[in-house]
Specification:
single chain; 287 residues; alpha+beta; 2,3-Dihydroxybiphenyl 1,2-Dioxygenase, domain 1; eight-stranded mixed sheet; 5 helices; globular
Amino acid sequence: MEAEPKLDPRTTPGPVTLATGSLSSLAAFYHEQLGLSSIGREGDTLSLGVGKLELLRLVEKPGANPARGAPGLYHFALLLPSRAALARALRHLAEGRTPLEGAADHAVSEAIYLDDPEGNGVEIYRDRPREEWPYPNGQLRMTTDPLDLEALWDEGSADPAPWKGLPAGTRMGHVHLRVAEVEPAVAFYRDVVGLDVTARMGSQAAFLSAGGYHHHLAVNSWGSAGSPSAPEGAAGLVEFRLVLADQAEIESVVARAREAGIECTRTKVDAVLHDPSGNALRLVAPD
């Protein structure tokens, strides 16, 4: 039996691209509430991030509306460098009266959740050290326990320094997608792309990564089971990126995709392919 392909452990998620019907209002949210800064603009596309690290691209499509219930983005997750940074972000969100959609202790991480004005999900989290991650019976266990928001608030309030946005060291931690069916999505991201399955939530969600991370990617069918792809021109997810080790690894994924009969657009610098639910994945190599 042929071994499953495995991506290099250096694989990381890259920027997420969202289409929006109102670039100015969405950009204001990510700047003022999330603390991202503008990196540059080219035509109708605005790049946002921390320092020079791009995390998000907003593409203006006037009149675009979200496709409710369709496959697409569940949330993208910004990984902060410390618990103190998460505490400060929580304090800033609370002082700005930004509504939260939830908070959870996942055993491997602590996270807070919110939606942007167009319904795109955003997670802000910090990881616990890997040596603290639970592996009962040799399998990674992620929980959805309540987060101690009071303790986190107290930690954030103990630092009197003014808010200056998300700190250096912030990066894209993972991307969580809505899909029409979980198993075909798992087969695509495992057997074609080369990610490892790290955990499952029954038949409704799965988590995948490279190099033993808890997850660089998750897929679920909550609210999107059996739904067709979002229509062309809808607001929401345009594409997400995975940064692979090098061009040779991109070529390996492209070869597996073509062998599986999956359409793939290859250029000298990247490749674009779509999962079975129509979510667009762009593979790139480090700059």
